[in-house]
Amino acid sequence: MGKEKVAIIGSGNWGSAIAKLAGNNVKKHSDVFDDSRVPIWVFEEEYEGKKLTEIINTEHENKKYLPDVKLSENVVAIPDLVEAVKGATALVFVMPHQFLSKCLDQLEGKVEKGAKAITLIKGVGVDGPDIHVFADVIQDRLGISCSALSGANIANEVAIDRFSETTVGYRNEREGQLWQRLFQTPNFKVQLIDDVAGVSLCGALKNIVAVAAGFIDGLEYGNNSKAAIMRIGLLEMKHFCQEFFNDVKEESFLQESAGVADVITSCLGGRNRKCAEAFVKQKKPFDELERDMLNGQKLQGIHTAKDVHIFLKAREKLGAYPLFDKVYQISWEGLPVEKLTEGL
Ligand SMILES: NC(=O)C1=CN([C@@H]2O[C@H](COP(=O)(O)OP(=O)(O)OC[C@H]3O[C@@H](n4cnc5c(N)ncnc54)[C@H](O)[C@@H]3O)[C@@H](O)[C@H]2O)C=CC1
Ligand SMILES: O=C(CO)COP(=O)(O)O
Question: Where do the annotations place substrate binding (predicted)?
């Protein structure tokens, strides 16, 4: 069997951090991976008067989304999505969830037969009463096996090699071990679990909880309130997964980085938390805050709150998830933020 050829689809803050790890690890495991080239698809834009792909390919740094972190020289930025995945056998999906569907439209019928994929995207696909994790969406649309990676992984910290853990929910153990080889470093520990849905849903739903934590910070309610939001949020996450997905594992919530640890880090230090605090203090809408505070990076939590609201409404289950619903109502329907804790 030939060596695995990796392609990374997405080059934002997390996409660039993961490209750094993958670029180095393919060299470390050159018995398994083709280490000559790791293509990364870049949604082309100008940054400081130059094309972002040109900056990445000459300076080996994504100056817009992950400044001051050097990427290995085998990481090659490519603006054409289909060209970026040409010949790839190991596809890493890592773009903000709102852009996945358009990418899959372009990729359908274009990926290598027998390729495998992993998604690092945090979000869910909702269509009225139907809900899907993105690993399933990718698998169905492209006809390839797709695992999921999620964890307490603030990208800027992983990128500078601070000790962190993550969880891979695998389709089969062999694929889990392949992804572990691609991403694990002495300071980035990759745990494996046979729970694609649980890992994916933890990553999506914790973003709603992080928005709630940001509201608490905006209200200056203090640490007890924030701890309560984390606890209630984690329970709603677990309840939601167990109610609507058959095969999720309890360990994914309580023992894995994807569950409890990601709730904690996101409620302390994530972008969703930061913008939600500003929403309360500055009284500006989220799209304006995203534009002013994130320099092109994207919020996921408020969109996931809306997706989950649409789904729960269609299933007539809104009352069963009061925290998720309060986040939706405050973010999208003008409910006063002081109502967040009412009835929890
Ligand atoms: N940043 C972080 O700390 C972490 C992020 N994640 C997840 O990883 C996923 C990707 O996040 P990031 O890499 O941080 O992205 P990001 O939040 O930095 O978003 C910017 C990216 O979106 C792209 N983009 C903008 N407009 C686009 C369009 N119209 N079509 C396609 N792409 C477009 C930009 O080119 C850029 O690559 C998200 O689901 C996020 O929740 C997961 C763990 C950590
Ligand atoms: O997923 C993350 C940390 O694990 C990042 O969360 P934010 O998108 O809120 O920054």
Answer: 122, 271-272
Domain boundaries, the chain: 6-197, 205-339
Distance 102 CA to ligand 1 centre (A): 14
Question: 204: closest CA among 174, 144, 248?
Answer: 248
* DSSP classification of residue 209: H
Ligand nearest to the CA of 65: 1
Ligand 2 center to residue 40 CA distance, Å? 21
CATH number for the 205-339 domain, one of 1.10.1040.10, 3.30.300.30, 1.10.10.10, 1.10.3720.10? Answer: 1.10.1040.10
Per-residue pLDDT reduced to its tens digit, 261-277? 999 999 999 999 999 99
**What residue type is assigned to position 254 of the chain?**
L
Known active-site residue 284: no
pLDDT given for residue 229 in this prediction = 98
- pLDDT, tens digit, for every residue of 309-318? 999 999 999 9
Atom 8 (ligand 2): residue with closest C-alpha? 271
Q: Residues near 1 by Cβ (< 8 Å), separated by ≥ 6?
A: none
Catalytic residue among 5, 64, 116, 206: 206
pTM greater than 0.90: yes
- Lining ligand 1 with CB less than 6 A are 10-15, 43, 65, 94-97, 99, 120-123, 153-155, 296-298, 300
The CA distance from 198 to 259, in Å, is 9
Q: What is the CATH number of domain 6-197?
A: 3.40.50.720
Q: Which class for 105: exposed (0-12), middle (13-18), buried (19 or more C-beta within 10 A)?
A: exposed
Q: How far does residue 122's CA lie from ligand 2's centre (Å)? A: 9
Give one DSSP letter per residue of 171-193, joined into a string: SSHHHHHHHHHHH-BTTEEEEEE
188-197 pLDDT, tens digit each? 999 999 999 9
Q: Which atom of ligand 2 is nearest to the CA of 150?
A: 4
CB atoms within 10 A of CB 103: 19
